[in-house]
Design brief:
Blueprint: E1 2-4, E2 9-15, E3 20-27, E4 30-38, E5 45-52, H1 61-75, E6 80-86, H2 90-97, E7 100-108, E8 111-118
Parallel strand pairs: 5-6
Antiparallel strand pairs: 1-2, 2-3, 3-4, 4-5, 6-8, 7-8
């Protein structure tokens, strides 16, 4: 599925059919952010690994990625999410946290790990 916005293109592509999905946010053919999201496990927990391109990104890129991850986990009926993002990426952390209830954040090396219950409505 590809969604075109005013400046960005968001693509969600199936990997391994049911097990994982790949999401990318692109502008002018350049990938700005990517994520791989696993299907929920037996405990209804999905996992997401999010990366972003180095350097300055257009305003809203990180929020678009957070929104896309939320859309995928909701489509997959996940009740919980554990997401890993680059350490220090406050905008991405805030974007993902805005879609979780009772989020917890911890650092593991160069990665921030956010986990919590998926808010099916999301919060702005």
């Amino acid at each position: 599925m590809t969604v075109h916005g005013p400046r960005h293109t968001r693509t969600i592509r199936e990997l391994d059919m049911v097990d994982r999905r790949h999401i990318s946010v692109e502008e002018n053919g350049e990938i700005l952010a990517e994520a791989t999201v696993s299907a929920p496990d037996e405990a209804e927990c999905a996992r997401a690994e999010v990366t972003v391109a180095p350097g300055h990104l257009p305003v809203g890129t990180r929020q678009k990625m957070a929104d896309a991850v939320h859309e995928v986990v909701c489509d997959d009926h996940a009740r919980h999410l554990t997401a890993s993002v680059p350490k220090g990426d406050a905008e991405l952390v805030d974007g993902i946290r805005s879609h979780l209830r009772d989020p917890e954040l911890r650092v593991a090396g160069a990665t921030s790990i956010i986990q919590g219950d998926v808010d099916p409505l999301g919060r702005e």
